[in-house]
Design goal:
By secondary structure, the protein is α+β, with helices and mostly antiparallel strands. The chain has four domains: 10-73 and 104-166 and 375-451, no CATH class; 197-339; 470-632, 60s Ribosomal Protein L30, Chain: A (2-Layer Sandwich); 646-757, Tetratricopeptide repeat domain (Serine Threonine Protein Phosphatase 5, Tetratricopeptide repeat), CATH 1.25.40. Strands 7, 9, 10, 11, 12, 14, 15 and 16 form an eight-stranded mixed β-sheet that branches. Strands 1, 2, 8 and 13 form a four-stranded antiparallel β-sheet that branches. The chain has a four-stranded mixed β-sheet with strand order 18-21-19-20. The longest helix is centred in the first third of the chain and has 72 residues, at 196-267. It is elongated and about 195 Å long. The two termini are 92 Å apart. Residues 1-32 and 56-109 have low confidence and may be disordered.
Amino acid sequence: MKKYTPFNFSLLFFIIAFTFMITISPSCSIKKNYRKLDIERLFMQTTKPEITFADQGGIEGLDGSRSVSEEVSFSEYSGDLSQNEVLVNEMDKLDTTKTYRLSGVVVKAKSNFATERDGRVHVDFDIIAPVDILDPYWRLTLAPFLIDGDSITPLDTILVTGEGFRDKQLGDYEAYQDFLSTIVDPSAYDSLFVDWKGMNKDIYKMQRRNYNDYRRNYDLMMDYANWKKMNEMEFLRMEAIARRHKKHMQSRYWRKSDKKAFRQLDKNKGIDTLGIYGQYMDKYKKDYTSYLKRQFSFDWVDSIHPDINIHAHKDSIMRRSHIPRKYRDIHQKGLTLRDLKAKPFTKEDSARIAKRHYLIDEIVLNDMNIERKGEIFKEVVEFPIPGEEMTGLRLDTVITAEYDFRYPYKQPWKIEKSTKKLEVVLAAMVEGIDKSTFVFPLSDTLTYFIASLAQLADESLVTERKMLHKNMVDNQSIYPDYRTRKSHRFRDIRNPEIFDKIVEAYQIYNNEADLVVDSISIRAYTDLEGLWHENYELSLERAKEAADYLKQKGVRNPVPKAAGEDWPTLARQVQSHRSLLYRQAILDSLTSAIYPDMTEENIKRDYPDDYKIIRDEIYPKLVRFDVTLHINRPGIEENTLQETYREDYAEGIKLLREKEYMLALEKLAKYADYNTALTLVCLGYNDKAQEVLEALPESGRNEYLLAIIKARKDNKNEAAKHLQKACQLSPELYSRTRLDSEVRELADELNLWDTLNN
């Protein structure tokens, strides 16, 4: 184990205290020494950090939209200075009789528009710190605040740190690290802050004590073993004496019984001598037992008999006070030398002894340093460097302070539906390495007005304007399928249901309060098969049959008319039919025909294959009825413009402007007009919005929405065409283009601004 040489901390305390007194003594003297503060020159100028709209715009929407800041620059000149007017940089001293003109004045708009998409905007602005307020030994803190209604929210801070200031910070951290390196971990107290001489002495004492304890127990065990062996020998000796005496007594009494028995037999030959042997054996047992009691102490034996084994009863004897007191515990537990455990010296013993030999002064000082690490950090590290875990910090950058500092700040922000504008203001402060601080006045406020597509709502559509015509016609064509080519009876039509829509239209018009159907004309056409005059008569008969049918259905005054063969339709069908081999020749024959019947025969003869196609595919389309309903408005004398205020439509526009898009769509969906499409665009339903817009007449706003939709679909060429058309039809949309991200980015990418403005 490596030994630690104690440091004389008492001496260290004295040196620190003496140095501190020398350091503070000048500040306590009567004459104060005022040195120059690092930030002195900030008091001698008026420059401050500012914020301005970013070069590409003030607000960025969810998909990157921005609007451009308005900027006007005035150049420096002196040729047209009026009398008593001078440039500010040409003055030698202040003259109150002169008017001073500032050079290079830049006027920036303090308000702009922000594009809202999906309830979010991106606040874009530039933070500018002129070089005049930068210094290598300063740190500039830039803290923007966003104002949303009554709420003021601090945004992430920007730290602009000079190189010298950062060197000061790093030096402080090194000093603090040096302090930390002097701190000893408490787990190392046992190895470093210990009186080794005293501890080693106590360790030796404990080791010697452990050995002595073992030796004492060892000697006792050995003595017990020797005593046990001696005791065993004693019991064996006693057993041998008893057995020897027993043998002698048995022999003596046996001889006596034999001698007496022989004497009796000599006197009387038939006498029983067994009783004599029994008497002597009883006497033997009695005398031997008396011997045992007399020779040995058998008080512990309940009954003594001649066959008793003294050695077998040794354990009983030793349990009854025959064991010395010092051996009784060993004997009762049956311990041997193998059961004797040596007590080693352990790490725990070392740590326990070390605690009694700690260098208390050093430990107390070390503990105080551990407890005051936070305080020491604050004292040594005057300007901490923000770490990655720090919240609310956007940037901590180190600069040389040779140029202006500019930072493009981007901040996403979720807005409420009622939000009309956002404001941004900048607070700033400079810190010097001497702890001096300078707080700048707040910057000018940037104001962002929220621009939403809902602002494009057309409120003029709330009032429905409809032209009421005095006289109107409704033209419809139906195609009957006759059983034969020359049939004219109505009952020969296979599809009579085609007339149902004529009857339905007639009933609808007549049921309108301000409409009346004056008459219905039914003009019948046939194909070219057969003679021309016969087909004319056939068409007349068919028209009459159809008119009679309509009368039966309640139609008043149907007028039948004959048209005969439908040559114009035939010519159009032939011209569009690509499968006809001699299409142009047939078309020339039709357009130059003088005798219709002969023309058909010539086509049939000269172009039989094409004629077959014409007869099978085109002739069925020539058989038709053209039905014209003549409608009149009896309540007016001439055409009139009717205006109707739609309350539900007005409610839909209100909801649209309040950005309640789904509720607005419920009100506007049935009208399928521009505002309906606008609502769909706000909801992101681009395909449905495009479908609605393509069904509407061409207009600037319709084209503008189509441009947004195409841009969202990444169809840039189509989007550009719609955008150019929109600005052509409605020039005021040029300004709007800068507010909507989809078309603004499109115009930037394709360089459309000049084209749009023209």
